[in-house]
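worker-3 :: picked Methanogenesis marker 14 protein
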Amino acid sequence: MSLLGKIFSRGPKPVIAKSRYVSIEDVKATAFTKKRAGAGLSTKPETYYIVASVELGNTTTKCILTATNLETSRTYLLDKTVKMTRDIRPPKPGENVFGETVWEVELTKESVSEMVRDTILESIKRSKINIDKDLDFVVRSTGVTAGFASPKEVGDLIIALADGCLDAGIPPSKMAPAMTKESFPERLRDYTLIEKVMFDGAVVSVLPPTGKAVVANEMEGELVTAGIKVGAKWTNIDFRNPCVSMDFGTTLAGRITNGQEPYARTIGNFCGLAGAVSDAIIRGTEKVDKRGGAALDLYSRDILKKADWKAAEEYAARVHDHIDIRKVPENRDRFGTVPVDPKAAYDAGTTLIGCDVGKNGDKIPKLTDMGHEIYSDSGIHTLFATLDYVSANIVKRLADEAFEEGVVEPGSMLGVTGRAGITGRKPEFVLDYSKDKFNGTIFVSDALAMGAAVMARCMNSMGTPHIPIGGKQGGACILGQRRKLQKQKGMID
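worker-3 :: C-alpha cells ->
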C-alpha cells in the first residue's frame, strides 16, 4: 500500500450482503443473452424458483417471498411483509394457550393461524403473484421458543403455522418435497437432480445434530446458516464450510460447522437471548410498548449522528456485567429462557454456547433501568450507540467461548445476520475483532428467508453444480461424493 494509502486507510470495510428486489413481471418476462464458448450468442428464458418464507418471531411475523435464479443461484426478494407479533389478538374463550413469546404474548393455535394467514395474503397481494401458478414452495419457521416447556412442544406452533398457510389458500403439496421428477412443474424439471440424488436431511451440505433436539430453535439456526451461504453469492466471499453463523433476532440462533465432506457436522449451536437485550434497554426510554416494544420501533438512519461513543462504550461494559455467555451447563433445561437439552447435545458431540441476562432473563429489568439512565443522562443517540457496542461485544464473547471450547476449525468463516447484529456500526466493531480470528466475515440481511429458499431447493434436489453453495471453501460441487455415499448406504441405485 502507498504512503497516502496507509495514511488515509481506515482498515477493511465490512462486507454486507443486502437483499435485492425483483418484480414478478421481471421474473416472468426476463430473458438473457449470453455468449457461450464455441456457440456464439444464444437466448433462453431464465427460470426462477419462488419460495415463501413464513416466519413467526418473538418481535416480528413475516412473509418473505423470494425468487431464485436457477442459472446463477442468486436469490432475490419479491416482497417482504412484516407485522409485529405483539399485535396477535388475545386468546378467545375456549382457546388453548400453548405457549408465549419471550415478551409474554400468549399464543393459541387459532390466533397464530389468523396472524399467519393475514400476513401471507398481504404479501401475496403486494407481490402480485398467483399462489397456484407462481408459488413453488413454502417453508415455515419460528423463533418463538422461550415460552415452551421443551423443544418438542415447538411442533405445536409449526402445526399452527401450517394451518395459517392452508387458510391462506396454499395447497399442502407446496409444503412437502416432491417425490418424482414428474411432480414438478414442467419449467423446473430440467433443474431438479431428484433422479440422481435424494434429500437425506443435509441442508447446504451440513448435517443437523444427531439424536434428540438439542435446542428449541434448531431449525432457525439451520436456516440462517444456509441463508448466509446464499447471501454470500452477492459478494466475493466464499462462505462455505467450516463456518460460524450467528442470528441476532430476539433470541439467538446459529451454528458452528466443521469442514468434513461431503457433509459437515454441526459441532456447535448458539442459543439464548440476542435482540432481546437491546429491546430491554430501549424500553427504559418509555417511548415504546412495555410489553412488545423493540429497538427497531425507534431506529432511524441518523440515530447515531450525535452519539457520544466513548460514553457508549463505557455504558456497554456495564450492561455486559449482567450478560452471561458460556458453554451451557449440563444440568440446565433452559438457557436465556430457551429450552435446551445439553446432555443430548454433548452426547451427539455438539457444544451449546448460550447468552443469558442473569439466569433465564431475570436481570432484564436491570437492563431496562440502565436504558432509562442512559436515555436521561446522554440521550437517544448515545443509547443506540450503546446498543451497537453491546451487540458487537456479544459476538466477541460468543466467538471467544467457541474458540476456548475448541469447536472453531482453523480457516472458519464468520457470518452474522438479524436486526440486532447488522445495523448501525455493529458490523464495523465486529470486523475489528474478527479480522484476525476468522478467514473472512460477512453480514447478511434476511438470511432466514434466504435459508428458506435454499432449504426448499435442497428438499427438492434443485442444486446448481456449476455454482456450488455446499461443500468446503474453494472446493468443487459435492454431488459426486453425495451419490457415492448414498449408493454405499443403499439409498439410491
